[in-house]
Amino acid sequence: MLRILFKQHLDDKSFRERRRITLQEVADETGLSRPTLSRISNQPGYSTTTDVLDALCEYFDCEPGDLIKRVSEAD
């Protein structure tokens, strides 16, 4: 299963910028819907599109490999 490390990147960005970043702010900046971001954040194994991953990579200034981690189903 692929895991999207959205919460970790959001926490890191919040820490670097010393402010709280809301899902709505990310939605506004990326053009992604808030429900999509909420599902990515809260549903383990949520399947998404490469367009969504691209928008998140642009927002977090990272590469896809930084945003995705492969985990075994047993974990």
TrEMBL record:
Family matches, as InterPro entries: Cro/C1-type_HTH, Lambda_DNA-bd_dom_sf
One GO MF term attached to the UniProt entry: DNA binding
Superkingdom field: Bacteria
Cross-referenced SMART domains: HTH_XRE (SM00530)
Domain HTH cro/C1-type, chain residue ranges per copy: 13-67
Gene3D superfamilies: lambda repressor-like DNA-binding domains
Signal peptide: none
Protein name: Helix-turn-helix transcriptional regulator
Organism, as annotated: Spongiibacter pelagi
Phylogenetic placement of the source organism: Bacteria, Pseudomonadati, Pseudomonadota, Gammaproteobacteria, Cellvibrionales
